[in-house]
Task: structure prediction
Amino acid sequence: MATRREKKGSSDTPDEPPTFPPTTPRRRRNRLQAAQAQRRITRGKLLRAGYRLFAERGKDVVSVNDITDAAGVGFGSFYNHFESKDAFHEALVAAFVEDIDARLDRRLARSVDVAQRIAITVRGAVERAGNDALWRRFLLREAFTGSFRTRGLEARLLDAIQRGLDTGRFRLLEPRVGSLATAGGLIGVVAGALSRSEEGEGAPLASRVRALGISTAATMLAALGLSAEEARSIAERPLRGASQAASVKGTLQSDRSLVFGAEITDRPDG
Result:
């Protein structure tokens, strides 16, 4: 009588384990790219959620759990990207300032006159603050924390004012105090005139925001020693566009692009 083995075949060699196609460099590369893309999506979710929460409520009252809940990702995912809430906040501020600088660089590329540089900086900030409530709130939350003393709007204005003083374009009785007061005036306009729209007055009209930007820039330039006529003339010059899509070109891997760049398709967290 034939045994079970004999029915299968006479060889004593054990059955061989199943084989799978070898992992090729291309497949490994594709898996790595997919993992990197997923990490970027998750980081973007966290940063955008934190940007909104910090703008609306302030850093001190927002917890890591609040951020992950708002982002729709697991709590542990936060620490795959950031060591702490402070590190997360610093990354967010850096992205915010980088976006300010990049947009200003586009508009200031051909502006040699320091007075024109100030007008462009002031008008750009006032108009963006008037048209983007979230951006305005985040700016006001951070404006007096020291985060912007060496970068962003205040640093840009102080540098332009100092250049104007050095070349005789501007005149101030007390240069340091006058410079700080002039730069601080921009935040005052944003906090005062524009933030009233959140107190029941409705969103400010684009024409009103533009007029406010022009008058703020003209007032600043007049305070720096320009005649009222010249200050107004410079402030009214058209602003060159700095579209969001164009402004993030070439920085697709940066935190700035994740917060202020093109839309990113949401997928499950990782």
